[in-house]
Design brief:
Number of strands: 26
Strand order of the largest sheet: 17-18-20-21-22-23-24-25
Helix content: 40-55%
Distance between the termini: 63 Å
Strand content: 15-25%
CATH class of the largest domain: Alpha Beta
Bound molecules: ligand C2E, magnesium ion
Radius of gyration: 63 Å
Shape: rod-shaped
Number of domains: 4
Length: about 750
């Protein structure tokens, strides 16, 4: 079944999916898409750039952390060192009053209670900022206590007893042993210090025996009074240290790192119990540097990404324009500029691809040729001709849409590749194309009727190879044209035989023309209508083939034209005819001239040489040209025609009325002396009303222009009389005489008794 007809334009048929012209053929001009560029190029590059930036940031962060970690480790060491130094310092502060002869005796004397308070309590508080002081006697009973520089009841010792007891035991043990290890010039007596709680406050507690500085007061070892100095950690202790050692926000915290960004170190007793933490805000050099340079780095990275984005945009722009350019060039290379249809090269390429389809779907190749386009171009100009071609191409493509691909092969030739259509489908397609093309085309508000001939070859029936199918479609087209144009013909084996025959004939003609073997000229007499006097003869080429016998000029003349042999044949006929005419003394000899000969710049010289050599006056030679030759404006034909007329040679327009545009142009005819009314009108002119009217119009028109008329193909008396009656000047036809060989023509002329030349017209 045929696919539904689409209304797409020829423009849309820029390309074809080769496997299936029916469905996938509409492939518009491919424009390189931004999305494709974004997905395949821009996005990966941009992601890579972002990943690089992220990597750089992470590396920077890692470095920052590493630097910070190293700095914090140093600070921890420093804090540990400070804490260690504190233990020594409190002991040293304490020793300024405990290694003192006066103190030894004062603590044992209740009367000196005031002195003890002032020197062993208040002074340490005021001068060294000790928070509490206790004094224990030889039996470890508290005899003195002061907190915050104020003396309190010794029983308050209970508040520190738990913490002090282990230290006291260790100190007493050393004192009993008279162990003075760790003492020197700076540290005179043994001592013990540790962390613990006093009155609920975390504190650094230091125990020192009260001893004689001079050594003059003897005390039994182990019976020394013991002084306990307390430095609370949760007061101004750490803030003071912070100022001293330049550590930010150094403080005591009962729990670990309560504040974000703070570091902490546990404060442990010798027994391993944690009594709290030293916390501080560590100096983080990495973070600090990073924070100072982060805005700059951020700016640089943002600028880099922006520059990359802009670069990609620019690249994309350039890429896009060059891709579009490429696409355009590709399109131009593969498409015809006038119709925008795929061109000949593309047609063959696509046909190859269609035929390579392994599924072997059936289809057809159509070879189309606009009828008489050359003549139309010549009469209406090339712009009008182009408009006809463009519109015809558009219509063919429109009909083909959905089931076939239309291409423009050459000037007036189109090709169609149809897939998935059987014989009936192909016929239907041809009918639709013929009908679409038949609709008149408006050119400058003037309806122009054109026809098209179609040659069809189907695959796989007629072949599966592109050049073979195309050749067969060409053969069929030839047949369609020979059968009268305006219809479609399908290839068949008989046509192929004809084509082979044609090639053989061409070859044989070439051989025959070497020495004109079998080539002769026959002469058909032409009579004046008024008195039936023999006034002229038309020279008609004849060829007797060695095996095929007589071959009609209607068959071998087109072959001679297409193979360029016509020049040699024409020159021969001209020379032979001139020779005969010079002998016969009839008025005029008419010789047919092909357009191929007339386009030859040497043609006038050929004619002049024939006339001179054979001794025939130019006035007695009449050259018959076809309408299409006559309408070829400008160019070599027109130049040759003008020169021939200047020479005195007459020009006749042969087969008048069969072309499709010259009737109107007869008004401007100045280059013709005679028109020969085509036999298709003449034969019916005896009866058919329409033909009669046409013939009468031609004769009238010619007479008003002073142009002579000859009717060709006069076969009946009736038409001879009609033609005479309407004023046709001369008659030619089987009624009077058939074309005769030279001898017979000579005899006829002699018999008719015309001895003197009589000029026609
Ligand atoms: P044409 O020039 O129109 O020649 C007239 C044709 O009509 C001749 O056909 C002639 O035999 C035929 N004819 C004449 N009277 C009658 C008639 O009463 N009835 C019918 N049915 N036909 C008649 P022919 O000789 O077969 O030539 C055919 C065409 O071949 C010529 O048509 C001419 O166009 C071409 N031709 C012949 N010889 C030459 C030549 O030497 N050079 C060129 N270029 N063309 C030639
Ligand atoms: Mg003729
Ligand atoms: Mg003719």
């Amino acid at each position: 079944m045929l696919a539904e007809r689409s209304t797409s334009t020829a423009q849309e048929h820029g390309s074809c999916a080769p496997r299936d012209c029916g469905q996938g053929m509409t492939k518009p001009l491919r424009i390189y898409s931004g999305r494709r560029f974004f997905l395949l190029t821009a996005a990966p590059i941009f992601c890579a750039a972002v990943a690089f930036c992220l990597g750089a940031y992470l590396f920077l962060q890692w470095s920052v952390r590493a630097v910070d970690a190293a700095a914090i480790a140093r600070q921890e060491e420093r804090v540990e060192m400070v804490m260690g130094r504190l233990r020594t310092e409190i002991a040293r502060d304490q020793e300024s009053v405990t290694a003192w002869d006066d103190a030894v005796s004062a603590v044992r004397d209740p009367a000196q209670e005031g002195w003890v308070d002032l020197n062993l309590g208040v002074w340490l508080h005021d001068y060294f900022s000790h928070d509490a002081a206790y004094i224990l006697d030889a039996r470890d009973q508290p005899v003195y206590a002061s907190v915050d520089g104020r003396k309190i009841a010794p029983a308050h010792y209970d508040q520190i007893r738990d913490a002090a007891q282990p230290m006291l035991a260790r100190l007493r043990e050393r004192l009993h042993r008279d162990d003075h290890g760790g003492t020197d010039d700076h540290m005179l007596g043994p001592g013990v210090s540790d962390f613990g709680f006093d009155h609920g406050h975390p504190a650094l507690i230091s125990l020192k025996p009260i001893i004689s500085y001079t050594g003059k007061i003897f005390q039994v070892p182990g019976t020394e009074y013991v002084h306990i100095a307390v430095r609370r950690l949760d007061g101004d202790f750490f803030p003071r240290l912070a100022a001293l050692y330049r550590v930010d926000n150094l403080a005591y915290a009962p729990r670990r790192a309560v504040l974000p960004g703070f570091e902490s170190l546990p404060i442990r007793t010798r027994a391993g119990a944690t009594i709290g933490y030293v916390i501080w805000r560590p100096y983080r050099p990495g973070t600090e540097v990073f924070q100072s340079i982060a805005p700059a780095i951020g700016g640089i990275l943002a600028a880099l990404l922006a520059a990359l984005g802009a670069g990609l945009r620019l690249w994309h722009g350039r890429n896009l324009s060059s891709r579009i350019q490429e696409e355009r060039i590709h399109h131009l290379v593969h498409h015809d500029a006038l119709t925008d249809l795929p061109n000949r090269a593309e047609f063959h390429h696509l046909l190859d691809q269609v035929l390579a389809d392994p599924t072997g779907r059936e289809g057809a190749v159509l070879y189309l040729d606009i009828d008489h386009l050359k003549a139309f171009n010549a009469s209406r100009g090339h712009a009008a001709g182009d408009a006809v071609v463009r519109e015809t191409g558009r219509r063919i493509a429109e009909v083909a849409a959905g089931r076939a691909l239309a291409c423009r092969l050459d000037g007036d030739e189109f090709g169609v590749i149809a897939t998935g259509v059987d014989e009936a489908g192909t016929q239907a397609l041809c009918e639709e194309i013929l009908a679409a093309v038949r609709v008149p085309i408006a050119i400058a508000n003037d309806p122009v009727f054109i026809g098209i001939s179609i040659g069809v070859a189907r695959f796989p029936e007629h072949g599966v190879e592109s050049s073979e199918l195309f050749r067969k479609a060409d053969v069929a087209l030839h047949q369609a044209k020979s059968d009268g144009r305006g219809h479609a013909a399908e290839f068949n084996a008989k046509l192929d035989t004809m084509l082979i025959e044609r090639a053989e004939i061409e070859n044989d003609l070439r051989i025959a023309l070497r020495d004109f073997t079998g080539i002769s000229v026959h002469y058909q007499p032409i009579f004046r209508a008024s008195d039936r006097t023999l006034v002229a003869a038309e020279a008609l080429a004849r060829w007797q083939h060695p095996t095929r016998g007589w071959i009609s000029p209607a068959q071998f003349i087109p072959i001679a034209e297409s193979s360029n042999l016509i020049k040699r044949l024409g020159a021969h006929v001209l020379r032979v005819s001139c020779r005969a005419a010079a002998e016969w003394k009839i008025g005029c000899i008419a010789v047919n001239v092909s357009v191929i000969q007339l386009r030859d710049p040497a043609f006038v010289a050929t004619v002049r040489a024939a006339l001179d050599d054979e001794g025939l006056p130019p006035e007695r030679l009449e050259l018959e040209i076809t309408e299409s030759t006559w309408v070829e404006d400008g160019g070599q034909c027109a130049i040759n025609l003008r020169e021939l007329r200047e020479l005195g040679v007459r020009i006749a327009l042969d087969d008048f009325g069969t072309g499709f545009s010259t009737f109107g142009r007869l008004h401007e005819a100045e280059t013709v002396d005679r028109i020969k009314i085509d036999q298709s009108f003449v034969m019916g002119s005896g009866q058919a009303k329409g033909d009669k009217a046409i013939v009468r119009a031609i004769v009238d028109l010619a007479r008003t222009k002073g142009i002579a008329t000859t009717a060709e193909g006069v076969e009946t008396l009736e038409s001879a009389e009609f033609l005479t009656r309407i004023g046709c000047d001369e008659l030619q036809g089987f009624l009077f005489a058939r074309p005769l060989p030279y001898d017979e023509a000579t005899a006829l002329i002699r018999d008719l008794g015309y001895e003197t030349p009589m000029l026609a017209g």
